[in-house]
Amino acid sequence: MEKKLLIMFLSLTSLSLYSQDWLDDNLYPFDSNYVQLEQGKMHYVDTGKGDVILFVHGTPTWSFLYRNYIKKLSENYRCIAIDHIGFGLSEKPEDFDGKPETHSKNLTEFIQKLDLDSITMVVHDFGGPIGLSSAISNDSRIKQIIMFNTWLGETNSNEELKKADKIINSTLGRFLYLRLNYSPKSLLKKGFQDKKNLTKQIHRHYYKPFPSKASRYSLLNIAKSLVGSSDFYELKWNELAQIENKPWLILWGNQDDFISIDYLEKWKNRLPHAKVVEFEAGHFLQEEKFMETLNEIKLFLK
């Protein structure tokens, strides 16, 4: 019995190592940390010393999205970047519901387990509703917020999103997401204004974390939540008053095919004191305008 368990353990370990042989240590030179949460084992980066900067990604990305910021900012700050359950190097349980509201609970559990305080939270894409919801629940621990292209508020009245939602919830949508790895392989590309910024090497790091159908359920589930969690987004929009008076920096790619400029106007109206900087770029400023956004972040942090 013990021999069988040992063989099983070694097999799983080998599979885990093999599944990460695509990971380039030059691009992502960080030690891996793990914490056991109620929903599964979460991977995170934790490097540097000083005030905490907590990076929260969306879909289909993971902590790799923030790698360049971590390299630079960890010289003066403690940089922590999570991989949501079901993403990146975190555990990918098939029975995890993958809803933003559940991801937000995971993030809150993470913050409290590590007893993080005086946090500068950085959010993007689905990381917006996930991170901001957690920030509202932990408002005394949040110092300030840096926000890339994201949203909050109901989505059920958006006709374009409702059309996409019908496809995502169809047999075709399930096939695209689970069989073809559509989100990181194809949809990700549409988020770039200049496709040259998404090299084959970098692109590989976004789709390789999802090597099989079994590993892709969180991609499908969070896509279903774009409209499916509309009530949750609206609830958190109404609760935003708890954190809206903190310092905010909004960095926005104004050529975003996913989150339109209308959402930026909504943020400006809600957060009139926020510093807003626009860039001629798509959805992924972290890849297309790294140095420019890094400089803005450094100024904001000072």
Mean pLDDT: 94
Query: What portion of residues belong to β-strands?
Result: 5-15%
Describe the largest sheet.
Answer: 8 strands, mixed
N-to-C span: 59 Å
Tell me the total number of β-strands.
Answer: 8
Domain AB hydrolase-1: 52-289
Pfam families: Abhydrolase_1
GO molecular function: hydrolase activity
InterPro entries: AB_hydrolase_1, AB_hydrolase_fold, Haloalkane_dehalogenase
Characterise the protein shown here.
- The termini are far apart.
- This protein has 13 helices and eight strands.
- It has a single domain (32-301), classed as Alpha/Beta hydrolase fold, catalytic domain (Rossmann fold).
- The radius of gyration is 19 Å and the shape is globular.
- The model is unreliable at 3-18 (pLDDT under 50).
- α2 (67-73) links the parallel β3 and β4.
- Strands 1-2-4-3-5-6-7-8 form an eight-stranded mixed β-sheet, sandwiched between helices.
- The chain is 42% helix and 15% strand.
- It has 302 residues and is of the alpha/beta class.
- GO terms for molecular function: hydrolase activity.
Offer a quick outline of the entry.
The protein has 302 residues and is an alpha/beta fold.
Question: Keywords, please?
Answer:
eight-stranded mixed β-sheet, globular, 302 residues, 42% helix, Rossmann fold
Q: How are the secondary structure elements laid out?
A:
Layout: H1 2-19, E1 33-37, E2 40-47, E3 52-56, H2 67-73, E4 78-82, H3 100-113, E5 119-123, H4 127-137, E6 142-147, H5 159-168, H6 171-178, H7 182-185, H8 200-207, H9 217-228, H10 230-239, E7 248-253, H11 261-270, E8 275-279, H12 285-288, H13 290-301
Parallel strand pairs: 3-4, 3-5, 5-6, 6-7, 7-8
Antiparallel strand pairs: 1-2, 2-4
Helix pairs in contact: 3-4, 5-9
